[in-house]
Write a structure and sequence with these properties.
This protein is α/β, with parallel strands linked by helices and about 325 residues long. Helix content is about 35%, strand content about 15%. The chain contains eleven helices and eleven strands. The protein has helices at about 35-45, 60-70, 70-80, 110-125, 145-155, 170-180, 205-210, 250-270, 275-285, 300-305, 315-320, and strands at about 5, 10-15, 20, 50-55, 90-95, 95-100, 105-110, 130-135, 160-165, 185-190, 215-220. Strand 3, helix 1 and strand 4 (about 50-55) form a beta-alpha-beta unit. It starts with a strand and ends in a 12-residue tail after the last helix.
Length: about 325
């Protein structure tokens, strides 16, 4: 796989990584299959998709961990990379605490004491002595950014974390943090139907990352599965957390199908899948962009990583620029 530099670290990662939060996460319930997840992580490493993004939720209550699986993805990833730690670049997150079965039950706590506790818990669950990339989930934090970012910088000095990133941050927050300690990566939603991070060109989030040499890590690069073309209105299983996303309400899904149809037309011209078109479009946003599509299915993993070799034409890009606006508010970072 083609390589891309991870921010200002001097370390290279595969141009496409693997999103691991959904593996054994707090929303899969009985659909969870840890054996498949272990296989997928190892196959991702075999294929060069070595950025493993597990940026999910911490938990303040052990009962929440038991009932909803918060923290389990990290434990699972630790098992998956045992014996292969040097091949993996592991990214996790601090500052978002799950208090219930759904992301909307999360709260923010960026106090220095809490961030230290979260990092120690992640190290234990991952069974490692250092976190490669630790994101601060900053949106809606009550503590000043200088205080929270400074606390994470202390973890770098202590050797518990290698590099720092921001999740859910604005350009202004990224600038403020970068003045205190280098921002290696910014993690925020970006896809063919959520393009806010591109707004403002060089003054937007993606543009800012390019200007300072930071990586941009798109979350939900496949529109939480909708852009793959495999979903239809009313097709969500009971308990699927996407049912809380306005874009996945039945009427919105029906209204958004023309977006998928247009992506499929481009995919058919290139003899690839809609998912591969969506990922290839992201890669074309700049060398600083490293998508991390999530899956626990080996077939989809191979399909996603193969998107690194898809070349879109100017006509393709023009057709994708002309996609209709999505119906329904986005779910956020």
């Amino acid at each position: 796989m083609r390589l891309r530099r991870l921010g200002n670290t001097g370390t290279e990662v595969g141009a496409i990584g693997l999103g691991c939060f959904g593996m054994g996460g707090p929303h899969q319930g009985p659909a969870r299959d840890d054996a498949w997840s272990l296989r997928v992580v190892n196959e991702a490493l075999d294929l060069g998709g070595n950025l493993l993004d597990i940026a999910g939720f911490d938990t303040a209550d052990p009962r929440t961990t038991a009932l909803h699986g918060a923290g389990h993805p990290e434990t699972l990833l630790g098992k998956a990379i045992a014996g292969r730690r040097k091949e993996a670049v592991v990214a996790t997150k601090a500052g978002a605490i799950l208090n219930g079965p759904h992301p909307r039950a999360a709260r923010r706590d960026g106090s220095p004491a809490r961030l230290g506790q979260a990092a120690e818990a992640s190290l234990r669950r991952l069974d490692t002595d250092v976190i490669d990339l630790c994101y601060l989930h900053h949106d809606d934090l009550a503590a000043p950014l200088a205080e929270t970012w400074g606390a994470l910088a202390d973890l770098v000095r202590q050797g518990k974390v290698r590099w720092l990133g921001l999740s859910g941050a604005t350009v202004e927050q990224a600038r403020e943090a970068h003045a205190i300690h280098p921002v290696t990566a910014v993690r925020s939603e970006l896809s063919l139907w959520t393009r806010d991070a591109l707004a403002g060109g060089p003054d937007g989030l993606v543009g800012w990352c390019e200007s300072v040499g930071a990586s941009f890590i798109p979350t939900a690069p496949l529109g939480r599965g909708f852009l793959t073309g495999t979903m239809r209105a009313g097709g969500l299983r009971s308990g699927d957390h996407r049912a809380h996303d306005p874009r996945f309400h039945r009427t919105a899904m029906e209204a958004n199908l023309p977006i998928v149809d247009a992506i499929r037309e481009v995919a058919d011209r290139r003899s690839v899948t809609p998912a591969q078109v969506a990922i290839a479009w992201l890669l074309a946003r700049g060398e600083q962009v490293v998508p991390v599509p999530g899956t626990s299915n080996p077939r989809y993993l191979r399909e996603n990583l193969a998107a690194a070799d898809v070349r879109l034409t100017e006509q393709d890009f023009a057709d994708l620029r002309a996609l209709p606006d999505p119906v329904g508010a986005g779910a956020g970072p």
